[in-house]
Each structure stands twice: as structure tokens, then as C-alpha cells.
Amino acid sequence: MYLRFAIAGLLCLLPFAGAQARTVYECLKDDRLSLSTAPEPGSKCKPKRVNDRKAKVKNFWGDQGPVRGNLYTTRMNGKVVYSTRPIKGWKEVAEPVRVRAPRDSWAHEGYGEVGKPRLDVFAAQFLAAAKKTGVEDAWLRAIAHAESDFNARALSPKGARGVMQLMPALARAYGVSDPYQSAQCIDGAARHIRDLMRRYKGDLVLVAAAYNAGTGAVDRYGGVPPYAETEDYVEKVQALYERYRTALKKPATRKS
Description:
- With 256 residues, the protein is an alpha+beta fold.
- It folds into 2 domains: 7-93, no CATH class; 123-247, Lysozyme (Orthogonal Bundle).
- 35% of the residues lie in helices and 14% in strands.
- The chain contains 8 helices and 6 strands.
- The chain has helices spanning 7-12, 123-133, 137-148, 168-173, 182-199, 204-213, 215-221, 228-247; strands at 21-29, 32-36, 44-51, 71-76, 79-83, 91-93.
- It is elongated, with a radius of gyration of 20 Å.
- The chain starts with 6 loop residues before the first helix and ends in a 9-residue tail after the last helix.
- 42% of the residues are buried.
- Belongs to the transglycosylase Slt family.
């Protein structure tokens, strides 16, 4: 299981001295990776320079996404040090505040919650789009469930529309003239997801992140953007995907 820690949260604990870049340490011990604001005792650590003012920090864990969780602190050489690793004698501190997506981001939490799969809604449209694009029916349903809770008239605060919550620019790019028309919206979204799967070589974590926050954000961060909305969305879609795979009697696949 990978660490669940927001790099931006670690940086916000550092005293601000006017510089835009800081050094944090990527530390390895007992095959476990951690981040620290100083080299950890007994760990093999490498320094990493990161931008703390804009929080545009490259994801150290590749396609596993930004992670969050508890921090541990102590004083070393008169300075306060933070680490994501529980170290004997270090004090556990509260989880850092997560970063909200910027106003111009597509990222939104979605209207659906993890719950019982709904197989009776737009079944023909999902099946047709799946056959046309090769995108799994269960994945399309998971996205629709998370995005709109299957509400074809849904409109997000960011301007996303329809059952698949297509942004206007995306709808235009895929020739969707009326995103509130369920068949059009599902078809356009399926074609977009197919393109995302090709772009990210089938990595569904990155596909979900890009669907939520856009490809620019995923590429800029080198993984799942460290936005609270996107982190929650990716977890929600993954959980729903498992449930829809089970409901459709297909064993879930996992990317190694």
C-alpha cells in the first residue's frame, strides 16, 4: 500500500523565507518510501527541489497519484523536522490541509456517491458506447455514477453538463451538440475516455484523474493532481468500478 500524503501539505508546514523553491528528502528504508524535510536517521535519502508557492510539485510516486496521511515531527539540530514515516521518538501531528483545485480547473467532486450499482439507467446507451469504443461498460457506468448520479440534466459549478458531465470545450471537440441528450453525452464521453486510455496506456487512475481535472493538470503534475476534489473523485470512481464489475459479473482487473 502506498503512502497517502499530500506533498503540498508538507510544504505548507515549512517556515516561509521568501524563496519559491524548497528542498525535501525522498527517503527509503526497509523498502518503504517517505518524504521528510531533512534526511531521516537510518534512511537512504535523496534531496528534491520543489516549488512551494504555487504547489506545482511533480508527483514522486508516478501513476500512483498524490497521497496523504499523517505526519511525524521532531527537532534536529535546533530545527523542526517533518516526515511521513513513523519514527520512534517522533511525535505524530495532524493531517495537513489538502489543496483545493484552482478556480480555472475542471476538477469537481461529482454529484454521485459510492453506493449500490444502478444497472437500469441508460443501459442501452452504455452498452452501445462500450461496443463502439471498446471502453468497458462498467467503467462508463462508474464515471456516470460519480459525475452526475445518472442525472442527464446535471450542471456542475464548473459548467460540466449532462450525465457524463462534459465541459463545453470537450463537448465541442467530440461533436456533442447537446450534452443534455444522454445518448450523445455518453457516446462523446466514451470516445474521450478511449483517447485517455490510449494516452495513459490503460492506467485507469490517470484516466479518471484526467477526466476530472483535464490532461493538462495530469501532465503538469506527472500524476494525479494534488487537488482534494480529484483525489476524492479518483477513489470514488475506483470503488464504483469494482462494484459495477461485480454487478455485471466480471472480475475486476488491476494494473500492476
